[in-house]
Structure to design on (106 residues):
């Protein structure tokens, strides 16, 4: 299961992580977000110990949503060493997300 990132824990779990991080910005009312959600959970299991995978509910965590300049959802940000390295907007195939996450590990 993917981690739940919040305004309160984002700095600690994402920015200060020593592993690559995938952050899915989503909302309960967003159809494409619901389609993407199981894929994010699968990635969390598959990359356990190698990367950090989690979700930010944009309705509940407006501070970090604004700070990351999220204007469309789902938006997936890929962090390495506390910085955004890549971005994906919209529902996409799992293999696209895995290729982007794999690229961060090199």
């Amino acid at each position: 299961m993917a981690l739940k990132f919040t305004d309160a824990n984002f700095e600690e779990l994402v920015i200060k992580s020593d592993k690559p991080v995938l952050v899915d910005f989503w909302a309960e009312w967003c159809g494409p977000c619901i389609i993407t959600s199981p894929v994010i959970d699968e990635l969390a299991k598959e990359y356990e110990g190698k990367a950090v995978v989690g979700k930010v509910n944009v309705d509940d965590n407006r501070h970090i949503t604004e700070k990351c300049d999220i204007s469309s959802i789902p938006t997936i940000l890929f962090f390495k060493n506390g910085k955004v390295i890549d971005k994906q907007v919209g529902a996409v195939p799992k293999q696209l997300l895995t290729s982007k996450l794999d690229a961060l590990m090199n």
